[in-house]
Design goal:
Elements: H1 2-19, H2 26-42, H3 51-69, H4 76-88, H5 112-128, H6 133-156, H7 158-182, E1 201-208, H8 225-238, E2 243-252, H9 259-279, E3 287-291, H10 307-313, E4 319-327
Parallel strand pairs: 2-3
Antiparallel strand pairs: 1-4, 2-4
Helix pairs in contact: 2-3, 2-4, 3-4, 3-6, 5-6, 5-7, 6-7
Length: about 325
């Protein structure tokens, strides 16, 4: 009995040690934020010659940030951040679709059928659509999404990874449609068979929170009239869709205030929008509300400005983004 108890204790300690193998620090978050600012700036730089690398960097940073917010100690945060940094070093080099996408520690290779589609998309794109930035961006996002599936499956099993698989299938479908549009009419684009069947639409609606809530507020009592009108118009549009697979509500703030306060505020605002949709007939079974705080700004402002000017400058950063996936 004592031996059994001792073994159980050793296994428990071992499991905890493995879970805490890559503890997260504020330096990890700072690195993600720094790289994200670089990406945001480069997205408006017409001299960038490698949109594939830039999109891949953004995709890696998305993984890093969301897993950081979930306190993932597996090492995927550091691995994804490192990959983003490597991609940013290539944004002014020629696009290299032949490069292999690594699996950082904490991820396993899954869905070979989708990796086969990636290979085929790259081959066909190089032949016919090498200058099509939209396709190369989709390919970059698909590759990183597949790595993310591998992480979720490695960490929590296939069932937990299912929603990440669905997202990858959607991206693959969109890339295939873009490739078919790009290819000459007399060329048949052959894509390996997969489980993808439906035509998926993805739309992003960005609503400035200044037009939704009173400044620095989030409750239903603080939803301004104009904000309600915008949400009502969106709900009317959603009711015209044939089906909605998922809605992701991302809350964002500016950098005024503490990091933890902004994270909480953005989460509560996202949840408030989710609740508003629910009370107006939009099912919330597949609706996810995320508070991303100040981490993904769309504009950078001089922090030495007067308070009023700073608030006005940062207005675009105070927003709620709704990403809708389904069939119209």
């Amino acid at each position: 009995m004592r031996i059994f108890t001792l073994l159980a204790m050793m296994l428990t300690v071992s499991t905890i040690a493995m879970a805490d193998n890559y503890p997260l620090t504020t330096a990890d978050l700072s690195k993600i934020e720094t790289l994200q600012r670089q990406v945001t700036k480069l997205e408006f730089d017409s001299s960038v010659s490698n949109p594939y690398a830039l999109s891949k960097a953004q995709a890696w940073l998305k993984v890093a940030l969301l897993e950081y917010n979930e306190a993932d100690y597996s090492g995927i945060v550091q691995g994804a951040t490192q990959q983003a940094e490597l991609q940013l070093k290539q944004v002014n080099l020629a696009t290299n679709l032949s490069e292999q996408t690594p699996h950082p520690y904490g991820s396993e290779k899954v869905r070979q059928d989708l990796w086969d589609i990636v290979a085929n998309l790259k081959q066909q794109t190089l032949k016919m659509c090498a200058d099509n930035k939209s396709i190369t961006k989709k390919i970059a996002n698909l590759e990183v999404q597949l790595v993310w599936i591998g992480h979720e499956q490695w960490e929590s099993g296939a069932l937990h990874a299912a929603e990440y698989e669905k997202a990858a299938e959607d991206i693959a479908e969109e890339a295939q449609l873009l490739l078919n549009t790009c290819a000459p009419k007399d060329v048949l684009v052959i894509v390996p068979e997969t489980t993808i069947t439906a035509s998926i639409n993805i739309e992003k609606h960005t609503l400035e929170t200044d037009a939704l809530f009173a400044f620095d507020r989030y409750g239903v009592d603080y939803l301004v009239a104009d904000g309600k009108q915008k949400l009502d118009a969106l709900i009317v549009e959603l009711n015209t869709w044939k089906s909605i697979d998922s809605i992701t509500i991302n809350g964002h703030t500016d950098k005024i205030g503490t990091e933890s306060y902004n994270k909480t505020l953005s989460q509560k605002r996202a949840e408030q929008i989710k609740q508003y949709l629910a009370t107006h007939g939009v099912g919330t079974q597949n609706v996810k509300a995320l508070g991303l705080g100040e981490y993904l700004p769309v504009v950078e402002c001089d922090l030495q400005q007067t308070s009023k000017k700073l608030i006005n400058c940062m207005q675009p950063n105070r927003r709620v983004e709704l990403v809708i996936e389904g069939e119209k």
